[in-house]
Amino acid sequence: MSKAVVGLIAGMALGFAGYFGGFGAFLVVLALGVVGLVAGRLMEGDLELGDFFRPRDDRGRDDRRRARGDWRQ
Hints:
Radius of gyration: 20 Å
Oligomer: single chain
Number of strands: 0
Order of helices and strands: HHH
Strand content: under 5%
Distance between the termini: 49 Å
Structural class: mainly alpha
Largest sheet: none
Shape: elongated
């Protein structure tokens, strides 16, 4: 199934939820769709669970500065 068809189905589901269930149902369907998307990406291997829990550090920013030759901090 192409990504366009999946997007069409998701848009129709959100549209039906918004029309028949109101804004609250729209938000519930949207939230569950995002949860399903993340779960699907995890199962396919496109995402790793550590991506959500890895601590942030400044090493990436410092590496970009060194690559540009900008040593100011």
